[in-house]
User: Fold these one by one.
Assistant:
Number 1:
Amino acid sequence: MKKLMKKVAAWSSETKVGVVIGLVAIVFFTVLAITTGGEPPTSFPTTSSQATSITTSAPTTSIPVFNPLDEIMEKPFNGNVQTVRYFFETDAPSEQLSKSVVYYDGNYEPSLGMDFAINNTQFTVIASLSGEVTNKVNDPIMGLTVTVASENNIEIIYSSLSSSDLQIGQEIKKGDIIGKAGEAVFGSDLDTNHLHFRVKIDQEYVNPQKYFGKAVKDIKK
């Protein structure tokens, strides 16, 4: 009889625990059904320990846009080419004035450009600015001449060339080859291969020396 009573007591204790567990389960699933709209969840939220895939786009780098007005005017050659004649200006130093006139046809005329030479060598002439070739002529006085029109109403005239492969209408970049220095009737008093270099702004000749190293936007009369 005692053994039977112990079994009943044990069963009663286990039944109470089972009832409690059953009630907790009922409450849990009831709440879960309410929060999920009456349907059991089909997936579980990602925990912090789980790896997440994040799609990122590669950082974009801005490419600077070339502005022709920012281009710097450079001398039309590389190396140790010398200035052998200057643009004529009445207020120039006296030693420069003596190298600012051209002896032609029995007269001294003011130089409207600059002349460059080195040891009577036919050095390579390069473009001081980018632009379009607007004229190429073998002038009987000025020699082979190439004219390049650039931004800001700037024209650069390369004369006394011995050769040039450029054609009218051709677009060129600063530093491109214009041709080779040579000789011409006008400037023959220099008695050397040279480049006669002139610059126009708004159709008026200006002193090239004042504009070397300046941006196109700052080149004004």
Number 2:
Amino acid sequence: MRAAGRLPPGQSLTLKWPVLHVGSVPVFAPRTWDFRVFGLVEEQLRLSWEELSNLPQSDVFADMHCVNGWSRFDSHWGGLLATELMKRVKLRPGARYVMVHGENNYTANLPISDFLRPTTILALRHGGEPLSPEHGYPLRLVVPNLYAYKSVKWVRGIELLDRESPGLWEFNGYHIYGDPFKEQRSSS
């Protein structure tokens, strides 16, 4: 797989799906849960769980690479493509970055160009089944071209920004971009 260009340097293939996260697994309350798109948009978008889960759904097969050194190939994700979500908002001039907000005050940043890739998905399912709570149920962002610390679990909002701003792991020394094929693990 390394010769085929799918296994980044410094990574080992796994068939498991390790569970790594900050804080406790939040309890999902569908009646009060909401999702927001805010910041540099003409009008903020707020969706209930019912509204979000009734938006058009897609499937993506993508590899996942963890900064801790494991890679998992051909994960099957189902949910809302980021491009589909963004059809519902009008960006203001200057919107160049996305700050993803999750439960437990978790944040991760990425350029809007990565957020709008055709494989970036707000996943509700993995392997045809609802996500498990440990893996981000009810909603997890999956950004296959970046290390998994950018694939935020328990997503509650997307903020559009005009400048790059560090999220939780970036603020604590992880690389601001996180390309696994360039081994961008730390900021040093």
Number 3:
Amino acid sequence: MELFEAIGSRRSYRGKYADSTVPREHLRQIMEAGLAAPSGCNKQTTFLIGVDDRALLRDLLDMMDPPTCATAPAAILVLTKRRIAYTDGNGHPRCYAVQDYAAAIENMLLAITALGYASCWIEGHITDADEQGKHMAERLQVPPEYDLICILPVGVPVEEMKLPRKRAFAERAWFNGFVTAE
């Protein structure tokens, strides 16, 4: 799939997945796309765990409430290890972990689309106060210095993916300055 086609056709998919296997080679390609993302000051704060073992995946997905991706045949869990990139002129430490993992996740979402699969960036259920992500991290034996911040289900969608209504380009983007859209 061509890059701009993948960008234009990527959707957040929350439906059911086909009961088919995602080949390990595809999961690796997707994960490599994530790790190829830019990283602030090259601190490489993003780490990934691919899960294709059905029993382990069921354990992890059973920890989610609501069960957004309960039928996914595979998933990628995104971890971050916050590292100070530098200290600014006022002595404030700067960390780009959020930007790093956001770039990695978008790369993976595009790779997932390009390979003919569907996914959804699920972070809220993972990082909310109910600590679903903490339980998942414990199950995966993630050391405490890493934060599990996202799960990306991966699989073939069985339901139609709906195109969300997007505002027109002219309402959100301009050249050479901000233009009030009225």
